[in-house]
Sequence to fold (240 residues):
Amino acid sequence: MVKSVTNLSRSGLSDWLWQRVSAVIIAAYAVFIVGVLLANPDMDYASWQALFQTTWVQIFSFLAVLAIVGHAWIGLWTVATDYMKPLAVRFIFLAILGVTLFTYLIVAGRAIWGA
Amino acid sequence: MNNNRPVNLDLTTIWLPITGVVSFAHRVSGIVLFIGAAFLVWALDASLSSAAGFAQVKQLLAENFIAQFIVWGTLCALAYHFVAGIKHLIMDAGIGETKEGGKAGAYFTLIVSAVLFVLAGVWVW
Fold:
């Protein structure tokens, strides 16, 4: 049995489930944040900052960021294994992907928890 | 093997079925979202860092065409990925798994996301 060592959860079935769980979290957050911005077209800095100082918004936002990182890894890992056949090319791509997603996590996390 | 089988390798005459086009576009929109996320993360960080940063992001979104285009493109990718994802979850639940159901879901995805593309454009500009 061939086992992949670069997919998120080491199991295709588990990846399949995580992709759906994370999708639902991201979809809910997208509706939330688009709704907030649509409902407050004249948003100012004070109320924007106050929003991200609310604990449940911080939790929801950081959960969404974690979901995005996992979702993007699973999705782009799938794309990479489909189209990038030379192992070196795929490995370099996955390394860049990992560093980029880690950067998103740190910068977004800092913004959310430091607000 | 039957040597009289028709062979068609002229790629300009071979088309993916509509379900395949919608599926491939789901991947493409995911890649666009991964790239667009860089702008969104930057905007989140800048807008929460200081009043000046917030003003800078707000001014960019109000006046800079390139920034507006990036946001519109990212919103379109999000809208498409969202609708196609919901279609995916509905099919996971066993609904619309027939050939006709798949086609109907594909057209549904294209039509709803086309409407959302226009609405996103109205919002940004």
User: Anything to note?
Assistant: Chain B touches chain A at residues 27, 30-31, 33-34, 37-38, 41-42, 44-45, 47-49, 51, 54-55, 78, 82, 85-86, 89, 92, 123 (CB under 8 Å). Chain B is about 80% helix and 0% strand.
